[in-house]
From TrEMBL, chain A:
Pfam families: LSM. One of its GO terms (cellular component) is P-body. Signal peptide: none annotated. One of its GO terms (biological process) is RNA splicing. InterPro entries: Lsm1, LSM_dom_sf, PTHR15588, Sm, Sm_dom_euk/arc. Gene3D superfamilies: 2.30.30.100. Keywords: Cytoplasm, mRNA processing, mRNA splicing, Phosphoprotein, Ribonucleoprotein, RNA-binding. PROSITE patterns: SM. This is U6 snRNA-associated Sm-like protein LSm1. Residues 1-65 form the Sm domain. The lineage of its organism: Eukaryota, Metazoa, Chordata, Craniata, Vertebrata.
TrEMBL record, chain B:
Residues 1-29 have a biased composition (Acidic residues). Residues 1-79, 143-179, 311-396 are annotated as: Disordered. Its main location: cytoplasm. The keyword 4Fe-4S does not apply. It is found in: Cytoplasm, P-body; Nucleus speckle; Nucleus, PML body. GO terms for molecular function: RNA binding. The keyword Cytoplasm applies. This is Protein PAT1 homolog 1. It comes from Peucedramus taeniatus (Olive warbler). Residues 470-710 form the mRNA decay factor PAT1 domain. GO terms for cellular component: nuclear speck; P-body; PML body. Belongs to the PAT1 family.
């Protein structure tokens, strides 16, 4: 009954799904936010989550047996947050370079989030 | 049933009354979560209590949820008992001793409020276990239990219950299970007031049988699920006239009591008493689909339905409950739900904050009926007498959603899937599953059949209803009103189409327009193609009489497609391939042609082929980026199969651009063809076909034969000339090329050709 929810902003939540409704609003219990960076992941316990349906990308049940055998390595929260920060930074820099290059050519590609992801 | 019904409305009404939004809600606070949580008219409750000693069977009309403000009463248990007594018709009670006990029972200490909730829950739950196990308790249980409990049970129960519910003038209050503030299942936290709860259980159970709906055995542990709480009051409070068959129910409770142990404490009345009642009834009842869904009404965390239902019940005369409650239709108007199942008793929780209410219900729901628990994570411990005590939840929060609610949500989602024409609405999904099924059938593993089917989501197909649009008409109005709607749109903007004059257009614009036109043509042709492809299916589905018409339509569409492809040249005989070339320049156009070819008549198909071959170098150049031409190979080869030699010859001619005028030193056309994968493959195909025809058909005309031979001679010469490195790698090499070439060249050259073209297997 553990479920994994992927949200539109990219977050991954894992928790016990307590209830849903027709809009796919979810109530998650004992939720843990899992951050993945490369092969490592870290869990942040969050408690109870109520997610509005429109932000849910997908939801799936976790097979508890399979959950244990995963090639991913779990690290502490601080470590994973640090890794994430590094990753974000690298992404931002490459993004900046790209935008720069495009600007030079006279093109401008609007960033995804400004488009409201559509 | 309107899905967006009352819950919201009632919420709004309820809100003003409730103020608190504590983050850290003291869940043990009886006022908010316990008996006190349910809003009652405390004054009335107070009055009732005051009369407790005096009146034994006075009938009262509580206007609101039964339940007394615990604080006001000072004796929550008492109020609960009051209600309990109300539930019971004196005459119904089998055991006069019980009744007596209820009357004389002393109210339990108010201090034990908090714990008592849990205690009774524990008891309730424990009791529930055995009860759930069997629908009909044996009478013997009653006998068994009664002797032990009668004095106390009767005592406590009688008075409160009498007060708890109004006596129905129409019929005795039957079957309302005693409301327990503390679910029976709760393990007793204190030994105080040991017998109070039990008493509560006793008389009411008689009626419980009828009130099957709330089946939430007491929450284990410390939590009383709001649902349970809500349930409790409903069942008990609304004294419904239950048939006498309910009496065995009493046995249930009694037995439950017995099993649960003596430590059930009557929950302080206040607001919780209703729930207790409900819970008890739940205990007694067989695991019927809980009415709780009504509580939840599909709204997670919104417990307003119980309240609403509760109110509804108060006003309405109780309807005889069916002996076996059908599964409620699912959340919908809670009122609607409640009407058919009047046994739902719920405290008036509308005024509660949703979170608050939810927690309430949460507690109520903690013990779910066994058969209803889906989530299963240890959420349900029904039915195990001995394990009640150890029902330390592995997962206290499991089964927050009733099966009913889950069904409701999935029902909504399935409703969205209904379509009048699945093929139209959901083409890919349907096709995908068709393929899967074919695969499964092909595997002939019958054992796996059902398994595979299980995962298929069957999208229902509903009949298409023809709606004739009738414009809205208002009565009493003069003339017809102009109402714009989807079916009858009103013109809002005056959009004027201005066509440009030829002079204004620049060359670029012309080019652009032309391209756009080509794109439009492609799209139109694509629609035609999809339609044509669909005809087969429609043919199967249609009636006999309609079939010729379908075929005719299909033919017409095919013709249209072809015309589109080649460009309708009025009066002319297609002198230019221009139109076609335009289409072929676009990637989608090429794919379109590939798909259309199977439908075309042989001559038309050949025409297309010729055009392609004629302009192949151009096409190759244009295709350099897309590399989509090879997709045409397959349909081309199919077409080739049906071509006579003459056509094939001309095809080769086109492809190779032979014979050439002597002036051209190199055969650019051929070179280009040979250097392109598609071109070379096509050439091979054509040659192979020619060879086939030559070798097989003995009746070929001489002239054609000669033509072919000449052509081949020239072709081979060219092939020899081309350096090997320049040759592309064809998709496939037909096997009869060797024999083909062997006719026209000598051995040495044949060897050369072989190596060059990798005709011999094994070299490649």
């Amino acid at each position: 009954e553990k479920h994994l929810v992927l949200l539109r902003d990219g977050r991954t939540l894992i928790g016990y799904l307590r209830s849903i409704d027709q809009f796919a609003n979810l109530v998650l219990h004992q939720t843990v936010e899992r951050i993945h960076v490369g092969k490592k992941y870290g869990d942040i316990p969050r408690g109870i989550f109520v997610v509005r349906g429109e932000n849910v990308v997908l939801l799936g049940e976790i097979d508890l047996e399979k959950e244990s055998d995963t090639p991913l390595q779990q690290v502490s929260i601080e470590e994973i947050l640090e890794e994430q920060r590094v990753e974000q930074q690298a992404k931002q820099e490459s993004e900046k370079l790209k935008v720069q290059a495009l600007k030079e050519r006279g093109l401008s590609v609007p960033r995804a989030d400004t488009l409201d992801e559509y | 049933q309107s899905l967006e019904d009352c819950p919201l409305d009632e919420d709004e009404d309820a809100f003003p009354a409730l103020g608190e939004e504590d983050e850290d809600i003291d869940q043990f606070n009886d006022d908010t979560f316990g008996a006190g949580a349910v809003d009652d008219d405390w004054q009335e409750a107070h009055e009732r209590l005051a009369e407790l000693e005096d009146k034994a069977g006075s009938s009262r009309e509580p206007d609101g949820p039964v339940g007394n403000d615990g604080d006001v009463l000072g004796d929550p248990e008492d109020a609960l008992a009051e209600r309990l007594t109300r539930l019971v018709i004196d005459s119904e009670l089998e055991d006069p001793a019980i009744m007596q006990a209820v009357h004389t029972r002393d109210p339990p200490q108010p201090g034990g409020l908090n714990s008592s909730i849990w205690d009774s829950s524990a008891v309730l739950r424990r009791i529930r276990g055995p009860l759930l196990a069997q629908e009909m308790p044996s009478v013997s249980v009653l006998d068994y239990v009664l002797p032990q409990r009668p004095p106390q049970a009767r005592d406590e129960e009688r008075d409160p219950s009498e007060r708890a519910l109004p006596r129905r003038s129409s019929s005795p209050i039957i079957g309302s299970p005693p409301v327990r503030a503390i679910p029976i299942g709760t393990p007793p936290k204190q030994a105080a007031i040991p017998n109070f709860n039990q008493q509560i259980l006793c008389p009411k159970p008689v009626h419980i049988r009828a009130t099957m709906q709330q089946r939430y055995p007491a929450p284990y542990g410390e939590r009383m699920s709001p649902n349970q709480l809500c349930n409790v009051p409903n069942s008990s409070l609304l004294g419904h006239p239950f048939p006498h068959s309910v009496s065995p129910v009493l046995t249930h409770l009694q037995r439950a009591q017995l099993l649960g142990g003596a430590q059930v404490k009557l929950l302080p009345a206040g607001r919780m008493s209703p729930s207790q009642f409900a819970r008890v009834s739940g205990l007694v009842g067989s695991p019927l689909p809980s009415v709780n869904p009504k509580l939840l009404q599909g709204r997670v965390g919104q417990m307003m339905s119980p309240a609403g239902g509760f109110r509804a019940f108060f006003g309405a005369p109780p309807a005889p409950p069916p002996s076996q409650l059908p599964h409620p239709p699912g959340p919908g108007s809670h009122l609607q739900n409640l009407r058919p199942q009047p046994q739902m008793f719920r405290p008036d929780t509308t005024h509660l904050h949703p979170q608050h209410r939810r927690l309430l219900h949460q507690r109520q729901q903690q013990n779910r009926n066994q058969h209803r628990s889906l989530n299963g994570s240890g959420g349900d411990r029904g039915g195990h007498r001995s394990s009640h005590q150890e029902q330390i939840r592995k997962d206290p929060y499991a089964n927050l959603m009733l099966q009913r609610e889950k069904d409701w949500v999935s029902k909504i989602q399935m409703m969205q899937l209904q379509s009048t024409d699945p093929y139209l609405d959901d083409y890919y999904y349907q096709n995908y599953f068709q393929k899967l099924e074919k695969l499964a059938a092909a595997e002939e593993v019958h054992g796996d059949g059902p398994k595979k089917e299980r995962t298929k989501l069957i999208t229902p197909q509903v009949a298409k209803l023809e709606h004739t649009y009738k414009p809205v008409q208002f009565e009493g109005s003069l003339g017809k009103l102009t109402v714009s709607s989807v079916n009858n749109p009103r013109k809002m903007i005056d959009a004027v189409v201005t066509s440009r004059s030829e002079d204004d257009e620049t060359k670029e614009k012309q080019v652009r327009d032309k391209r756009r036109q080509t794109l439009v043509t492609i799209e139109k042709t694509y629609s035609l193609l999809l339609d044509v492809e669909d005809y087969e299916r429609r043919y199967l589905l249609s009636l006999e009489g309609e079939r010729p018409a379908l075929m005719g339509e299909r033919k017409q569409k095919i013709c249209d497609m072809y015309d589109n492809l080649r460009g309708k040249a009025a009066g002319q005989d297609r002198p230019s391939d221009d139109h076609f070339m335009q289409i072929m320049c676009i990637r989608k156009g090429k794919r379109l042609v590939a798909r259309i070819l199977p439908f075309l008549a042989p001559e038309q198909a050949a025409d297309v082929l010729m055009a392609t071959a004629r302009n192949l170098p151009f096409l190759i150049k244009k295709d350099a980026q897309d590399e989509v031409l090879p997709c045409l190979l397959r349909p081309f080869s199919h077409v080739l199969y049906h071509l006579p030699l003459g056509t094939v010859t001309s095809l080769v001619q086109q492809l190779t651009n032979l014979p050439q005028s002597a002036a051209a030193p190199t055969n650019l056309h051929l070179t280009a063809v040979l250097q392109n994968k598609f071109g070379l493959s096509l050439l091979y195909l054509v040659l192979s076909r020619g060879e086939e025809l030559q070798s097989s058909d003995t009746n070929t005309e001489l002239m054609q034969d000669n033509q072919w031979t000449e052509l081949m001679l020239m072709a081979t010469r060219e092939l020899l000339r081309i350096p090997q490195g320049a040759l592309a790698k064809p998709v496939s090499i037909p096997s009869n090329l060797i024999s083909l070439f062997s006719r026209y060249v000598d051995q040495q050259k044949l060897n050369l050709l072989e190596t060059k073209l990798h005709l011999v297997q094994g070299i490649r």
